[in-house]
Amino acid sequence: MKILVTGGLGFIGSHTVVALLEKDYDVHIIDNLSNSSLSVLEGIAKITQKAPSFYNFDLRNEEKVDAFFKEHDDIDGVIHFAASKAVGESVENPLLYYENNINALVYLLKNITKLNHKNLIFSSSCTVYGEANQLPITEEAPIKKAESPYGNTKQIGEEIISDTCRAYDKFKAISLRYFNPIGGHSSTLIGELPIGTPQNLIPYMTQTAIGQRDELSIFGDDYPTADGTCIRDYIHVMDLAEAHVVALERLFGSEKDGLYEVFNLGTGKGSSVKEVVDAFEKVTQQKLNYKIVGRRQGDVVAAYADTEKAKDVLGWQTKLTLEDALQAAWNWQIKLKEED
């Protein structure tokens, strides 16, 4: 079956491409390389001994999106990762986020509606819940006003997809609300490869530990948590990649027109930033230089998943631990250092 993966050279996208290729799917990748590298394509090919088809263009270019689908009108499913994803950056540059995350989605959906097989997996986020009333967060938790433009684009994206499922015959979609993906492939041939200054905790942490950055900033230690730092649900990217394949297969196996479902993807366990730092130091035997700075706009106090729905409906649950993910991220950082 022919699967299009947008943003397929990004962190989560590349690991999902590996999972798809290992299941013998025919994978086609669209990526504009704005936050990824062509070297990732080589890593995917080395791991799987297969070469996915790659197209380098920006989904904000509607003509190129239309031309791609005219040439590939036999696609069976689309997994849409391509989006800007940094909370802080979205606060500083909201229009970039609305253009990139909403316009590209609309152009993609317009073309999927013309396909014989209208199956979409959408890369969503736990940010849609904002500051949740109850923990762990279930899929039934209210969608609150977003804390950031990034979170708002995910809320809007889900609404657009839900409306599309209702309006178009045989259009089926699943939105996967991830918590905090970390780690990397055990081969160290692919991993998290942010361009420029990392916006996420783990790559900044590994770059600090290896000497690429002077120190890690922890944004606030005055939150109402046990140690004062924010709590998140950190999920190994390989577990997350597997969930995408399982969700896609659910769409293929469903005869229900207009199917639209959402699933939380996390471990079900919250870890504070300080707990992650401590775990990283223990796993890697590296002392981390960090400082406490002011809170970052757009951050919620705590977010971790109720994973029962994914377990019951998809038959999926995580297998790998926080320590597994931190070790994988560190091994990847060492590999990058060796290649410098």
From TrEMBL:
Gene Ontology biological-process entries: galactose metabolic process
Keywords assigned by UniProt, alphabetized: Carbohydrate metabolism, Isomerase, NAD
Cofactor(s) in the UniProt record: NAD(+)
InterPro entries per record: NAD(P)-bd_dom (IPR016040), NAD(P)-bd_dom_sf (IPR036291), UDP_G4E (IPR005886)
Molecular function as annotated in GO: UDP-glucose 4-epimerase activity
Complex formation: Homodimer.
Family listed: Belongs to the NAD(P)-dependent epimerase/dehydratase family.
Record's protein name: UDP-glucose 4-epimerase
